[in-house]
Design goal:
It is a single chain. This protein is of the alpha+beta class. The chain has an eight-stranded mixed beta sheet, with no helix packed on it. The longest helix has 18 residues, at 381-398. It has helices at 2-14, 250-265, 301-309, 326-342, 348-356, 363-366, 381-398, 400-413, 421-432, 437-445, and strands at residues 21-22, 40-52, 57-68, 72-78, 83-90, 93-94, 96-100, 103-107, 117-126, 131-132, 138-143, 148-151, 171-180, 184-187, 190-197, 200-211, 218-221, 224-230, 233-239, 272-277, 294-295, 317-318, 417-418. It folds into three domains: 2-126 and 155-216, Immunoglobulin-like; 223-312, Orthogonal Bundle (Neutral Protease, domain 2), CATH 1.10.390.10; 318-445, Neutral Protease Domain 2 (Neutral Protease, domain 2, Orthogonal Bundle), CATH 1.10.390. The chain is built from ten helices and 23 strands. It binds arginine and zinc ion. Arginine (ARG) binds at residues 133, 135, 137, 139, 153, 285-288, 306-307, 329, 379. Arginine (ARG) is lined by residues 133, 135, 137, 139, 153, 285-288, 306-307, 329, 379.
């Protein structure tokens, strides 16, 4: 908001009122400055994709409904230039465009008024490939022997569709994905249709709740797809046949985890749940893709709990900047500990003690949880385990009732939105009725091993 006001003020000073100005090429995230764009707010993506796993040929038409936040002469979308844009229209009129690295720059035929809704259609295609993250992980369109393992945190979304790819611009999505009929295409949300014509099948998925683009997925393979009601939840599970014999109870296993977390954190925020299990152990991580996490192996109880807890913490409530990723990973790790305690696998005390036991000289205690120092450290232990310990210490400090009130209020107040560490501290202090700045300073912002 502050930034928008500053931009508006600058526009008044430097350009005449009717000229408008170009949108920012980034959303201003200190860890990923090129991510996202300014000048508009995306509301809905309709992605029509056609994919051939054999040749890795992707053809896409992205229809993006958005609203301007300023009078706009030009705006950017994020898309890697290994994919070639064929045409762009804005409100039905041809727009000029250029591709510069990961930026697609679009100039509509006429400037767009401030606060106006507009629709951009981008036709594009090519042979997508993943990116390498600062931590060395593959991210984005990760090819497999029979399709694609598609995980997009923190920057993979730009490897397969144009968008406003920063977590602060959430939108709803519809995916219509056409693949050879020997394959299945799985995405977020609800499967609404499946149509076969000739030897190709189109899968349509509707994700009706707002979603950050790093949580989208279109994963493709020879999956076994099941769609069942587990307790209150529509549970759609896609499993690689190579892993099928270990996944026979996977859909059912969602029920007790979601019930338990609903009792602690408030109602499950989405219309369906499930999993994508693709045999790609070399990927090395799972991801909490919204409604339907993706796993490179059949998840253990703790991994399942971790990714499902993210549906509340990370997916429904999303940080505002990457450095605040402890709001995702610390919370999901703590929930994992709670679930392991609940099922008698390991007590909460044992999990907390294990993490706390690291020597003070360890990197773990020298890295501030709420800003681990740069994008290479986003998914390291100080974010996960020290983040979880921070919550455990907070619980000890304020007591169980206040602690779970804080978590539930967090999930309710920021449902489908973004919130930052400052808001979490403010909420904790409000619920606890006391100043906690010294406590949070020691746990989140300063190096060193705080007393537990
Ligand atoms: N958020 C994921 C999880 O902990 C981890 C994603 C790791 N991504 C990466 N590029 N290293 O559930
Ligand atoms: Zn996680």
């Amino acid at each position: 908001m502050k930034r928008l006001l500053a931009l508006a003020a600058a526009a008044l000073l430097t350009v005449s009122a009717s000229a408008g100005s170009p949108g920012d090429p980034g959303a201003g995230d200190p860890y990923f400055p090129g991510q996202g764009n300014g000048g508009y707010d995306a509301g809905h993506y309709d992605l029509a994709l056609d994919y051939n796993p054999g040749s890795n040929a992707l053809n896409g038409v992205a229809t993006i409904s958005a609203r301007t936040t300023q009078e706009l002469t030009r705006f950017n979308l994020d898309l890697v230039d290994t994919l070639k844009v064929r045409s762009v229209t804005v409100d039905g009129a041809a727009a000029s465009f250029s591709q510069q690295g990961t930026e697609l720059v679009v100039t509509p035929a006429a400037a767009l008024a401030a606060g106006a809704g507009f629709t951009t259609v981008v036709s594009y295609g090519g042979r997508p490939t993943h990116v390498l993250d600062p931590d060395g992980s593959r991210d984005g369109w990760i090819r497999t022997s029979d399709g694609v393992f598609n995980a997009n945190e923190p920057q993979g979304a730009m490897t397969w569709y144009p968008g406003n790819h920063h977590m602060t611009d959430k939108a709803t999505y519809r995916f219509a994905v056409t693949v050879p009929s020997t394959r299945v295409a799985v995405a977020n949300g609800d499967l609404t249709s499946r149509n076969t014509g000739g030897d190709r099948t189109t899968y349509v998925w509707d994700a009706r709740e707002p979603m950050a683009s790093y949580l989208t997925t279109v994963s493709i393979g020879k999956f076994i797809l099941t769609d069942t009601k587990v307790g209150n939840f529509r549970t759609i599970v896609a499993v690689d046949p190579k892993l099928a014999k270990d996944a026979t109870t996977l859909a059912q296993r969602h029920g007790p985890v979601l019930d338990y977390f609903s009792s602690l954190f408030g109602p499950y925020p989405f219309s369906s749940t499930g999993a994508i299990v693709d045999h790609e152990p070399n990927v090395g991580y799972a991801l909490e893709t919204q409604t339907r996490p993706i796993y490179p192996v059949v998840p253990s109880e703790s991994l399942l709990a971790h990714e499902l807890a993210h549906q509340w913490f990370g997916d429904s409530v999303t940080p505002s900047r990457w450095q605040e990723i402890w709001l995702n990973e610390g919370f999901a790790t703590y929930a994992e500990w709670l679930w392991q305690d609940k099922i008698g696998q390991r007590t909460l005390q044992a999990s907390a003690d294990g993490a706390y036991a690291r020597p003070e000289t360890d990197e773990f205690w020298q890295t501030p949880t709420a800003d681990p120092g740069g994008p290479a450290a986003l998914f390291h232990d100080p974010v996960y385990d020290r983040g979880a310990l921070t919550l455990h210490a907070l619980r000890g400090m304020v007591g169980d009732t206040a602690f779970f009130t804080i978590l539930r209020t967090w999930a309710t107040d920021h449902k489908y939105g973004n919130a930052d560490t400052a808001a979490f501290i403010e909420l904790s202090e409000r619920v606890a009725g006391r100043d906690l700045s010294g406590f949070f300073d020691a746990w989140l912002f300063k190096p060193g091993k705080p007393a537990l």
